[in-house]
């Protein structure tokens, strides 16, 4: 990295040599830096509006005593959370080809230093590599074992990684040399076509007889990459398994198929081959939590996965689902493995805002890695293999008028730089409050060397003055709108921190091996769990995949003979009546992407008593309402306040206090590009048969806490090796709860 306050400019080779010789090298953020001396904190700024990029400012001086009133970010380095693998991107085939074959050797070396050196560059420490072709390749599809149409190679005698030896592997080795702590993970967009029902890398499903050859394919890849000097620490079974593209490589792999593949083939094969590479599950968007949790709910699969891989392509607020899944299964890790910016965001300032949102809110929600997408693309956002149009890389590699090639950092580069240069691999995220959207957002880390880094971004439209408090010390700073500042300092925190200043509570539980299962909770998570209104209170609960919450009486489905269904919008092929026809193969669908205010309504024909509604979207697993509210009415006109709210899921089970009404309306509260679909709706009523209470199973630990806003919560954690059963008193009624091993349940009470 070679520039401070001046704008990075494209250069020819000769001009680049002059520029690199004259501009200062940024010092690494280490305790030895003079600006990090005790009593002071260093400051590094990026502000695209003034063309200021990773510019070191005058240090700020800590003060002691009462801090001034006003906006305050409190950092508590005594409260530590997940370790960080780091920040990075992907050398797709397109990226590696541009960097490896178009840039001169001197420029390529300069760029690689800029990217991976902690001393001379921004210290990227993780790369997520496609296994074969993705939607960014130079010459179309390829795998490591391609065969002519109609032929197969189950013994993998044709396997070869030679394609990657030309320009990809040399760059990965150079990156490892520049940053020995670099983590490499790998993901296939598709198996070889002959393993699939489509006989193509585009579309199709994995053939039943290809499960073991595909596991062997992974093992061969890992061994040959290691032999070539690139050990791979993590793999995922499939990129975006809920998406089946027809124009570039991809494959739909259901959660059940993925579990079977991992448990019966991939994990055993890695063990037999003595490969230490860890498996991450899912590798797709934030809006479907049931898929990754299905790995943890199955004890056989849970032993074989190291965490969840997440993509950011869903509503920004759904990043909270990383914390939801963590709290449901608190021993499992989270990794953000892909998040591309692009022209759809707007100008450079907008792109920088998107990158900073990812850099800050990913780790705040337990991500151990933040991986953008392409390291490099050309001026046309290519070369593309029929994939994303307008995706933004970390650097643009382009040809100048004189025929030479050069590179220009983008908003993604500078966004990652605000963290990657200062947050070392192995750093721990630590507690801090955030001032939120439209103000100063932040995330804090403690490095292995003991230094602290606080990354901040002003997402508002005006300059913001705020105070940073750390123990007994504080400083005040003013940050321009749209600018990011990273503060680093050394030393030990003195003095305790008021938990109310952070705004969240930590609930630590014990595992049999002595490790800690840690749940964190703040009021933002209330919207990500089901809640029902009982009198003047909202009662909330979490329900991890594999868990069940059962009322004390049996239930019976209400007959549908007199029902009528309606909706705010419908596809001409999928009218509302198809949701109540008893045929799970048919559906009602909205016919358009989901928007807040969309509704689906039932007329039960007369006033009926019920205590549960089930919206089943199993046959269109991604088409559920991302956030819902439920209303009831006696006349279909007067609806009053909602009686239930929560996040949707593939099968949305909405528990209610016993309610009597004729009309039921479910309202979608969130945006999504997916249509809203319901294949089958059921309304259940108590049948009066009392079920036996559960016997409390050994291994259940319980803790309680209260948030600063008065919300009360209690949590139960199952540290045992099997499913735990216990009773929970909730809203005046005793329910039976079954909780899988390693899972936790949270119950909340707040004023309505």
Key structural traits:
single chain; 752 residues; alpha+beta; twelve-stranded antiparallel sheet; ten-stranded mixed sheet; 13 helices; 18% helix; 36% strand; globular
Which shape, going by the Cα principal axes?
Answer: globular
Cα separation of the termini: 53 Å
Helix content: 10-25%
The chain-level structural class is: alpha+beta
Mean pLDDT: 92
Using only C-alpha atoms, the radius of gyration works out to: 27 Å
Sheet having the most strands = 12 strands, antiparallel
Number of E strands: 42
Proportion in β-strands: 35-45%
Q: What's the total helix number?
A: 13
Model regions low in confidence, pLDDT < 50 over at least 5 residues: 1-36
């Amino acid at each position: 990295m070679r520039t401070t306050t001046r704008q990075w400019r494209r250069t020819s080779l000769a001009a680049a040599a002059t520029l690199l010789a004259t501009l200062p090298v940024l010092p690494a953020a280490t305790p030895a830096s003079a600006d990090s001396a005790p009593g002071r904190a260093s400051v590094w700024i990026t502000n695209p509006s003034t063309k200021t990029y990773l510019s070191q400012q005058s240090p700020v001086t800590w003060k002691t005593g009462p801090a001034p009133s006003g906006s305050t970010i409190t950092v508590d380095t005594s409260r530590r959370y997940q370790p960080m693998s780091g920040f990075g991107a992907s050398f797709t085939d397109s990226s590696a080809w541009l960097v490896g074959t178009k840039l001169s050797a001197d420029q390529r070396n300069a760029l690689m230093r800029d990217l991976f050196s902690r001393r001379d560059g921004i210290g990227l420490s993780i790369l997520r590599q496609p296994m074969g072709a993705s939607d960014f390749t130079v010459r179309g599809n390829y795998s490591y074992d391609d065969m002519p149409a109609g032929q197969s190679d189950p013994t993998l005698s044709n396997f070869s990684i030679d394609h990657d030896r030309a320009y990809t592997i040399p760059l990965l080795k150079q990156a490892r040399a520049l940053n020995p702590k670099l983590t490499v993970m790998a993901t296939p967009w598709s198996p070889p076509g002959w393993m699939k029902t489509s006989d193509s890398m585009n579309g199709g499903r994995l053939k039943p007889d290809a499960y073991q050859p595909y596991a062997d394919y992974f093992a061969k890849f890992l061994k040959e990459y290691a032999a070539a000097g690139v050990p791979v620490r993590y793999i995922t079974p499939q990129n975006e398994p809920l998406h089946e593209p027809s124009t570039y490589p991809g494959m739909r792999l259901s959660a059940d198929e993925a579990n079977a593949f991992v448990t019966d083939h991939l994990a055993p094969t890695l063990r037999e081959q003595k490969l230490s590479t860890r498996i991450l599950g899912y590798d797709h968007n934030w809006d479907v939590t049931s898929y990754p949790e299905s790995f943890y709910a199955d004890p056989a699969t849970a032993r074989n996965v190291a965490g969840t891989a997440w993509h950011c392509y869903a509503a920004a607020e759904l990043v909270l689902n990383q914390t939801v899944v963590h709290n449901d299964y608190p021993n499992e890790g989270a990794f953000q493995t892909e998040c591309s910016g692009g022209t759809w965001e707007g100008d450079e300032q907008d792109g920088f805002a998107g990158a900073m949102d990812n850099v800050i809110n990913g780790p705040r929600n337990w991500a151990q890695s933040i991986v953008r997408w392409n390291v490099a693309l050309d001026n046309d956002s290519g070369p593309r293999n029929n994939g994303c149009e307008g995706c933004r890389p970390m650097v643009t590699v382009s040809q100048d008028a004189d025929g030479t090639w050069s590179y220009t950092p983008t908003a993604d580069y500078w966004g990652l730089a605000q963290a990657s240069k200062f947050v070392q691999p192995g750093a721990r995220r630590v507690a801090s409050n955030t001032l939120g959207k439209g103000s100063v957002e932040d995330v804090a880390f403690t490095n292995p060397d003991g230094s602290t880094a606080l990354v901040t971004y002003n997402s508002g439209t005006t300059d913001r003055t705020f105070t940073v408090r750390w123990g007994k010390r504080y400083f005040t700073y003013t940050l321009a709108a749209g600018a990011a500042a990273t503060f680093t300092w050394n030393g030990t925190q003195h003095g305790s921190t008021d938990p109310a200043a952070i705004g969240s509570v930590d609930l630590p539980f014990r595992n049999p091996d002595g490790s800690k299962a840690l749940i964190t909770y703040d009021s933002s998570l209330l919207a990500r769990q089901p809640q029902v209104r009982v009198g003047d209170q909202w009662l909330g609960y979490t329900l991890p995949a594999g868990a069940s919450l059962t009322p004390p009486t049996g239930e019976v489905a209400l007959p549908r003979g007199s029902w009528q269904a309606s909706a705010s919008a419908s596809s001409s092929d999928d009218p509302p009546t198809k949701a109540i026809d008893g045929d799970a193969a048919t559906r009602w669908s909205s016919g358009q992407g989901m928007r807040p205010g969309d509704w689906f309504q039932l007329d039960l024909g007369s006033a009926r008593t019920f205590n549960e509604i089930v919206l089943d979207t199993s046959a269109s697993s991604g088409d559920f309402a991302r956030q819902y509210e439920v209303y009831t009415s006696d006349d279909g006109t007067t609806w009053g306040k909602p009686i239930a709210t929560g996040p949707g899921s593939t099968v949305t089970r909405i528990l209610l206090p016993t309610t009597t009404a004729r009309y039921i309306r479910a309202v979608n509260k969130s945006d999504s590009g997916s249509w809203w679909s319901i294949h089958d709706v059921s309304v259940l009523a108590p049948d009066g048969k009392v079920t036996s209470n559960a016997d409390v199973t050994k291994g259940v630990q319980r803790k309680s806490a209260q948030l600063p806003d008065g919300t009360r919560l209690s949590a139960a954690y199952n540290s045992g090796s099997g499913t735990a059963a216990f009773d929970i008193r909730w809203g005046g009624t005793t329910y039976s709860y079954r909780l899988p091993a390693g899972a936790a349940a949270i119950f909340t009470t707040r004023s309505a």
